[in-house]
Amino acid sequence: MExxxxxxxxxxxxxxxxxxxxxxxxxxxxxxAIKNNHLAQAFLFCxxxxxxKTTCARILAxxxxxxxxxxxxxxxDKCDSCTSFNSGQSxxxxxxxxxxxxxxxxxxxxxxxxxxxxxxxxHKVYIIDEVHMLSSAAFNAFLKTLEEPPxxxxxxxxxxxxxxxxxxILSRCxxxxxxxxxxxxxxxxxxYIAKKEGITAxxxxxxxxxxxxxxxxxxxxxxxxxxxxFGGNTLTYKTVIENLHVLDYDYYFKITDALNTxxxxxxxxxxxxxxxxxxxxxxxxxxLGEHIRNxxxxxxxxxxxxLEVSENIKQKYLQQAQGCSTQFLLKSxxxxxxxxxxxxxxxxQRLQVEIALLQISYLNAASIDAEKKKIVQNQA
Length: 380
Fold this sequence. Notes:
Helix content is about 55%, strand content about 10%. The chain has a five-stranded parallel beta sheet, covered by helices on one side. Strands 6-7 form a two-stranded parallel sheet. Strand 3, helix 6 and strand 4 form a beta-alpha-beta unit. It is elongated and about 85 Å long. It starts with 7 loop residues before the first helix and ends with a helix.
């Protein structure tokens, strides 16, 4: 019988601190706390969605109850505590989703359980997800227990909205801020999944998925699964940009060349083609701003590292940046920024973008005219 499909985000969910993607500052601190027996009794994990908050909470819960920690302060995955945790039968770990269990009664039930010591292992760990959803009465009911829990109890609160948590709760927790995951880390992780699943994936295709995920690994895994469902065992750059509705780099390189050489017919025709392909003008102008910014970044060798693209696209940027003056790029960014701000209030949004493009295309001509005028004035 064929095994049921498991989404990549679950199938390849990290099981040890070592395998957590892009949060080394947090995993190192937690490992050192376990190693030196300096564990706090309440933690607050906050950060954007899909960056590993609940995953780290589960790994921490598993590791502190492991009977045979490895030399690297990782769970052994073999002892009774680890095997019961892996099979989802551990009596030492309680997970509460505060989004659907946010009343005083839910918190009181939790507090009643806290008094009982663990049957196996040294700690009982209470993971409360989306903790910002608790009602103010539930927060207040939780305060005393959070400040003075029994020695065996550890609370791990996870939230995407730290600002919604009352200061009295924050002051009782050790706060860990999770970062958005870097593009390279997401891309490498997707490459690892592709290799494990026997999928041939172009590097540029994986980078586009990573960019679209905006720092969230779970979102990236979901998009990866979607692309595999569409394209089978081969993931190409072309299929990814078509299905994720991403504007191809080539459009931006082509339109920038046309703007720089005052080729207005190519500019307008290319913009029309982009609209015909179903892209929104605002989406295009924001992308053009990002493209011009990348060209400015390429003007200085010290800032090239800020470019989050593959090596072959980086070479294209370097080549195009050499042909554009810094003045042209800076003035273009100013025009794009003004268009971006006024786009939503404009009655004729297409015209708004076209005016901006025409203004950019005449920047070089205007600066040549200004230079000639200056020379004439100096000669006079």
